[in-house]
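User: My notes are a mess, but here's the protein and pyridoxal-5'-phosphate's SMILES. Can you give me a structure?
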Amino acid sequence: MKHIPLSIPHLSGQEMRYVTEALETNWVAPLGPNVEAFEAAMKTYSGSAATLATSSGTAAIHLALATLGVTAGDDVFCQSLTFIASTNPIRYVGARPVLIDSEPETWNMSPAALRRAMIQAATRGRLPKAVIVVHLYGVVAKVEEIAAICEEYDVPLIEDAAESLGSTINGRMTGTFGTFGIYSFNGNKIITTSGGGMLVSNDTRLIERAFYLATQARQPVLHYEHTEVGFNYRMSNVSAGIGRGQLEVIEERVEARRTIFERYVRAFETVDASHYQQEIEGSRANRWLTALTLPGGMQQRDALIQQLKQKNIEARPAWKPMHLQPVYRDVPYITANEEDVSRRLFEEGICLPSASQMSFTDQALVIRFVRQGLVEDVRRNVQL
Ligand SMILES: *Cc1c(COP(=O)(O)O)cnc(C)c1O
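Assistant: No problem, the inputs look usable. Here's the predicted complex:
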């Protein structure tokens, strides 16, 4: 049986031209014309004043925190329902993550929980040094509300837009609402450089500082002079060549993933109570992965993933929130009220194959087996 993957790279055909150019001109070292052109193209596409291509999205988050001067003993608020790369950089700088619950509409950071956390922190005289919000699976968070709360408390906002390149709210790109935004070009994302990331900001001086830290914090003198510990976090000119070819087709990729999402929604209309991430008013999600919750919870979810696997179809559980991860069991977790929303979304949440090149026939197959799985599950439960 044919393998139907969750998400795989989808080349445009233009990548080879830029990569060949890099090889033919011997520009295979970090930096170079492809990096500069890719950064410029990302500036235009995102609408940010400044961009810095990095070796990964994780590195971009680490650089954002380091540039903001976050250090040992500081707190950083971070959405709990995310991939671990959002939180790990908080530990890299020696700070403590404080995890924030999601709201059930977009599945992203709950503004109510954030406000509650801010009030608690202000009372203790221990405001966070930064807040990290995520646009999960490409669905836009309530980022304007979140940015307003951060502004009120004068705390910088970092947008983890690793999964949401191309997602907008009132035409403005995710990643441009905070002090910093980051994108990822890992192999599974909507576009890829095989591995890489981008740090963006509307503050050119912050990006200059990040550039300095990303290149071993070298002082501007003839010999090698260092007064601080920096990193080696720049993107290679070969990777950036792939990125240039990919960025040319980003809008097509967004359209393809949105179409896949819409087909799933229509197909499961009759399988009641399935619940999708919602687009808040004025927003356009890139729908990197179609995610939904199943009425039967974790048992039904896991059984369905197993059944699909037997048909060679790759589906995955939603990200397991950071407050449920053994590695982060000691850190505070703040919800809006008694309900733990991100736990429920994890337990009931499933991601379905969403690769932009998935054919109509392949998706029809996925739909058929999902429906079959759900119906069988209902029958089993009725028999019990
Ligand atoms: C992929 C991802 C990252 C990290 O990006 P890499 O380029 O893989 O380092 C960060 N945050 C989220 C939410 C991601 O999905």
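The longest helix spans residues 360-383.
User: Great, I'll file this with my notes.
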